[in-house]
Amino acid sequence: MSRHRWPRLSLPDVTAWAFLTAAVLVITAGHDWFPAWTSVDVGGHHLDGHDLATLILIAPAMWVLSSRQRHHSALRQAAAMVEVQRDLAVANMQYRSLFDYHPASVFSLNRDGRFVEVNPAAEKLSGYRPEELTRLSFADLLHPDDLPRGADAFDQILAGEPQQLELRVQHRDGHDVDLEMVGLPIITDPESGEVTGVYGIAQDITERQRLHRELADALHQAQAASEAKSRFLTNVSHEVRTPLASLLAATELLEDAGLSPGQARMVTTIDRSGQRLLRLVDEILDLARIESGRADVRREPYRLQDVLEDVMPLAEAAGARKGIEVTRHVDPAVPDELTGDPHRVAQVLTNLLDNAVKFTEQGTVTLTAQPAGNGELVAVEVTDTGIGIEPEQLDRVFDAFSQADESIVRRFGGTGLGLAIVRELVTAMGGSISVESAVGVGTRFRVTLPVSPSCAGPGSPGQQ
Question: Which residues of 101-110 are buried (b: 16+ CB within 10 A; e: fewer)?
Fold first, then answer.
């Protein structure tokens, strides 16, 4: 049996020990050492003083140590690779779950626009099986009228710009499907930023579009009906107003014809009824103009005091006939000029004052005006001590042909048009109107009107 020959090194004492120390450090750091036995002669001294020659065999034990550390390192690398593979598998399953179970149609396209992958919802939406879709391009499904927009959006996505748009595709059975679609670029190399395909998410909005079209048609029909109604009311009102004006003119002539007391009372009744009918006709005309967008509302500077000088005497006279005191107070700080239509402002205040007097049996009706809105508005309030309005009826007082209580119509008359017209006119002049009321206590209407930008300063002192 042959004997294995080991490499043998004969080194000086200090060098040999340094050699051994270095070998141990290198091997414990995980590096290879000698592939076979190695012996090192190390000189030393016995305790009695004579020289010793020591032969140290190092390689096998150190090689075993190096092999064990390489094994442990390989195990750690393998464990790390297993963990990475597991994380990738989990991420892939999460993606597949999102892709497969998404209620919207999800698909991917290559740079040529051909289908690469589709989820079950896309199959249901298109009517094609997945293997059939992968032989088609997205353009093959698009409605011919939407091809240019679809192609433009596809180019934008390939340029790295996400797109959101509505398109129509054709189902396999031939009917059109309205889609709301989001297109996203697929970038697999962040460093280059190259777009390798398109990721699409499409939602079927066919039913929503159908309802939208039906609603648009219904709205168009309603507008046409409203315009027809307005034209009808305008024509009828004009036809009624013409003979009514002649009737009122005749009553004026009769009053000066030396009538007996009984005849005079009948003429007065005819005149009052005619005037009431004339106001109704005017209100219907105003409502028809407002609803058709043809209301004539000017925006020009005017003085509130001038308007009050026109409307207050009529209200004061009506209140005097019922034993009601009608007063006014204008804050001296109210600007001299406001912006709006003085004729329409007079119409608004006349309506509010007439209602206040009509629904007040005893007490007072007061009109006040003071600055509001940091001096940019003037608030005019008409307050009465009348019957008041039920809280649940307050929201209806500005509706056309509506009154707070049907019994009011039988007791006080009226059509319920006045406040609806008032609100529209105030809004058209850039103002607002609100109401506060308590049953048995009274009602307060508050109207805000814009101040003229060229206002020079506060108006004249108020009047009591």
Answer: eeebbbbbbe
Query: How large is the C-alpha radius of gyration of the chain?
Result: 49
Q: HSE-up of 344 (CA within 13 Å, CB side)?
A: 26
Count other Cβ atoms within 10 Å, centred on residue 205. Answer: 16
Q: What is the DSSP letter of 135?
A: T
User: What is the model's pTM?
Assistant: 0.49
User: Does the pLDDT at position 83 exceed 70?
Assistant: yes
Which whole number is the average pLDDT over 124-129? 92
Residues 168-205: pLDDT tens digits? 999 999 999 999 999 999 998 888 889 999 999 999 99
Other CB atoms within a 10 A radius of the CB of residue 416 amount to 18
Q: Which two tokens stand for residue 256?
A: 């000066």
Of the listed ranges 52-56, 269-273, 406-410, 440-444, the least confidently predicted one is: 52-56
Q: Give helix 206-255 / helix 261-291 axis angle, nearest 10°.
A: 160
Phi-psi region of 430 (alpha: psi -120 to 50; beta: other; left: phi over 0): left
Digit-coded pLDDT (tens) for 129-172: 989 998 999 999 999 999 999 999 999 999 999 999 999 999 99
Cα separation, 174 vs 385, whole angstroms: 71
Helix (H, G, I), strand (E, B) or coil at 46: coil
d(CA 196, CA 426) in angstroms, rounded, equals: 61
- The pair of structure tokens assigned to 379 is 């608030």
What top-level class would CATH report for the domain 214-291? mainly alpha
- Decide if domain 300-450 falls under CATH 3.30.565.10: yes
Query: Cβ distance 274 to 248 under 8 Å?
Result: yes
User: Per-residue DSSP letters for 228-281?
Assistant: HHHHHHHHHHHHHHHHHHHHHHHHHHHHTS---HHHHHHHHHHHHHHHHHHHHH
Closest CA to 16 of 64, 50, 55: 55
- Least confident stretch, 200-204, 307-311, 373-377: 373-377
Length of the chain: 464
pLDDT of residue 1: 44
Domains of the chain: which residue ranges? 8-97, 102-204, 214-291, 300-450
Q: For residue 343, what are its two tokens? A: 């004729």
* Average pLDDT over all residues of the chain: 79
pLDDT surpassing 90 at residue 444: yes
The CATH number of 102-204 is 3.30.450.20
Closest CA to 401 of 413, 412, 416, 422: 416
